[in-house]
């Protein structure tokens, strides 16, 4: 069981690097959109979307990132076939933080799609 989790964490680490590049590109294209059409910066939905995106990015890096690194390290150094109990505890503690990130992403998508 722990071996499969090690492979999953390796995949997540690789995907995280690609996702980081994607998030940076997304922010830059959003700002470029505002630079091309400066009136967007006068619209609340656009400003709120950019602000939520920055909050999401910082929150992911400063809150979730360290917790995930601890979990990655814990499973990487695991010698047994069973998933460590401490890993399970950390995973359950991470869930509310993860839900908050998902909520931010949904709010950004709603703002950008509906443009209220």
Question: How does the SSE layout of this entry go?
Answer:
Blueprint: H1 2-36, H2 44-76, H3 85-114
Helix pairs in contact: 1-2, 2-3
Provide a descriptive summary of the structure in words:
The protein is mainly alpha-helical. The chain is built from three helices and no strands. Helix 2 (44-76) runs antiparallel to helix 3 (85-114). The termini are far apart. The relative contact order is 0.14. The model has no long low-confidence stretch (mean pLDDT 89).
Brief write-up:
The protein has 116 residues and is mostly helical.
Task: Write down the secondary-structure element order.
Answer: HHH
| Estimated helix fraction | over 70%
Proportion of beta-strand residues: under 5%
- Tell me the total number of β-strands: 0
Question: What features would you highlight for this structure?
Answer:
116 residues; mainly alpha; 3 helices
């Amino acid at each position: 069981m722990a071996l499969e989790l090690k492979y999953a964490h390796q995949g997540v680490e690789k995907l995280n690097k690609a996702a980081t590049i994607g998030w940076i590109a997304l922010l830059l294209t959003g700002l470029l959109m505002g630079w091309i059409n400066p009136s967007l910066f006068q619209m609340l939905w656009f400003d709120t979307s950019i602000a939520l995106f920055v909050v999401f990015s910082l929150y992911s890096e400063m809150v979730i990132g360290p917790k995930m690194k601890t979990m990655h390290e814990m499973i990487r150094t695991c010698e047994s076939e069973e998933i460590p109990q401490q890993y399970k505890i950390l995973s359950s503690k991470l869930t509310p933080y993860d839900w908050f990130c998902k909520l931010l992403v949904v709010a950004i998508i709603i703002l950008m799609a509906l443009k209220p």
